[in-house]
Amino acid sequence: MEKSKYICVDFDGTIVTHDFPEIGKDVPYAIETLKALQDNGHKIILFTMRADEYLDEAVDYLKKRGNELYGINTNPTQKSWTNSPKAYGHIYIDDDCLCINRVDYTCFT
To answer: 74-83 in b/e burial notation, b at 16+ Cβ within 10 A?
Structure first.
């Protein structure tokens, strides 16, 4: 197995459809792909604009579907080498990134 990666993943529009403040419907293959990545040793960091009770709802949503989070809006390991507020990751998955109209989770399987 290749070295474990830190994977920062957005929530609304990436894991579920945009329906904020409600939680939208599952984006096809998102939950299963995150679980497979986690099962292969990668560390999932939820990287979202949600806060307070809305963030708690997103975390609970993922936990109920078998996705344990390594971090929430932060990478716990980075505190020893930076005070940057941006979560450190090797890969960032977000529906609003440049040149990507939507996340195609089939590319990870």
So the answer is: bbeebeeeee
